[in-house]
Amino acid sequence: MGRVTSPSRRSIDADGAMVTPGFVDIHTHYDGQVCWDETLAPSSVHGVTTAIMGNCGVGFAPLKPGEQDRLIELMEGVEEIPGVALSEGVRWNWESFGDYLDAVAAIPHSIDIGAQVTHDPCGFM
Fold first, then answer.
1. Sign of the CA dihedral 82, 86, 87, 89?
2. How far is CA 104 from each of CA 12, 17, 45, 53, rounded to the nearest angstrom?
3. Tens of pLDDT along 73-112?
């Protein structure tokens, strides 16, 4: 913002291209998919640069050891996430919300991820 008075160090020929700011998808269901999918499509192919998850009040952390099946069943019903995808794609190597964030951060992603703390810590019911 403001007036540019000096030449740029680098310029890009964007002729014929659409130049837009990044978009933030404020409501996604990537809570499980973020554990195995580096691209997080379709959001990434639609120009989304940041995806927020944990919006529906349920999430994947905190999680007591051995409670994965109950959480998978809940997510199948509430979020319509296929149970087989969660069973095979998620490592379930966390207990606390911080541990979950660390597990997500250990996987490179093509877009930024934000996670909300859910109001229903499923694994601790």
1. positive
2. 33, 33, 20, 12
3. 988 888 888 999 999 999 999 999 999 999 999 999 999 9
